[in-house]
Amino acid sequence: MATVVVSPFDVANFPEGGGHFWVYMQYVQGLRRLGCDVYWLEQFRHGKDRDRDARALTTFFTRMQQFQMSGRVLLYTVGHGEDGRIDQVGVTAAQAQGVLRRADLVLNFHHAIDPRVLACARRTALVDIDPGLTQTWMSTGALRVPPHDVYFTIGETVGTPAARFPDCGVRWVPIHPPICLDLWPYVHDARSEAFTTVAGWWSGKWIKLLEEGREVLYDNNKRVAFLEYAALPQMTTQPLELALLLADGDVEDRCLLERHRWRIRDAREVASTPERYRAYIQGSRGEWSCAKPVFVKLQNAWVSDRTVCYLASGKPAVVQHTGPSAYLPDGEGMFRFSTLEAAAAALDAINTDYERHCRAARDIAETHFDATRVLSRVLSEALP
Fold first, then answer.
1. Is-contact 322 333, C-beta < 8 A?
2. What span, in angstroms and rounded, lies between the C-alpha atoms of 91 and 87?
3. Where are the alpha helices (DSSP H) in the chain?
4. Per residue in 193-242, pLDDT tens?
5. What is the pLDDT of residue 82?
6. Are residues 108 and 152 in the same domain?
7. CA–CA separation, 200 vs 244, rounded Å?
8. Within the chain, which residues score under 50 in pLDDT?
9. Do 332 and 206 share a structural domain?
10. Residue 187 in domain
11. What total of structural domains would you count in the chain?
């Protein structure tokens, strides 16, 4: 039985992110289903509000207990500066070092992790879930990634001649976003009314890309992508709902969307816990969503871990096209649109034979995203 340490990013500090929590827990629970002895390694960053920090830690450890991870969390803090002191939270330094030394693999999502944390690990593997962005940041020096033994990515084009970004001189192994199918069962209710999604309105930030030898600045926020499709509800009879993480100053944007007949929910209400996030998805009729603008521009064939949750739940997905794919279907259970007209047509096509597309959605998840299959490949690649 392999011992695997999974190193997520920004989960303990983001207690209201139920969907963000699931990204990494899919890997943890999938590895456990393969018989692995799994630990969770994460940096916690103290803020100015100590009461908020205390609440965040309480929430985090409670969730770890709910997912049978009590006693398997290696939380740590890092002091200021490159040589800042590393302190453990809830375990001793000796206990943490003991786990890392005996672990067969550290599966790392924290790209800017302090190299000292990985120093005693036998094998390390980086997992890239922002294909194209990760490689761009690495190549420009915006992101300093310590050396790893293996480099995984969920982007199909990463490291191939089709990529519109550098490979950074390493071999990238493509994998699919995993999902634990038993934790995300098929749920069919023809009465479910709205196609939905959950997103941060400002999740993406600006990014510099090299084009013909010069740097070009792009707005990579989801806001840009969604506003391009603001007129969609007026082109279909299908109700559409966005659960967004809006800021106090986004009143005009919300009013604009509502004028176009979008239903708007607060993501902090519907997705603030892992359970609420799952319930919201499984109570939806399907998913409609855009991708970050740079994913479309880079044509990396990216697919969201959130979309995989919809598919596993038997909810058809209508999502923005992010480039040609060797495995992502388009036309049954999942549709990939590039125009307003194509998005509206996909929604109408699903509703003409809804049950068939629901079954197809689950089939897609079982065929391409089953955590036990995905992570079996991860282990075979990472542990020679």
1. no
2. 9
3. 18-33, 50-66, 93-102, 115-118, 133-140, 222-228, 251-259, 267-270, 274-282, 293-298, 305-312, 340-352, 354-368, 371-382
4. 999 999 999 887 888 887 767 778 888 999 999 999 999 999 999 999 99
5. 74
6. yes
7. 6
8. none
9. yes
10. no
11. 2
